[in-house]
Amino acid sequence: MPTGDIPLRHGYTLASIHELTLIAVHCELFYRARDYHERVDIAWSAIAEHLYASEQPPSRSDLIHAGMSAIASLFVSEARSHGINTSQRGRTAAPGTNFQKYWHLSTRPTDGPEERIIERIALTQIWAALTPRLRDAFTALAVHDDYGRAAAAVGKTRDQYNSQLSYARRVFLALWHEHETPSRPWGHDRRSRTHITPRDTARIMRQRRRTADRRTACAGQSLSFAEDEQGTAVSNGLPETETANAPTA
Question: What pTM, to 2 d.p., does this model score?
Answer without folding.
Answer: 0.37
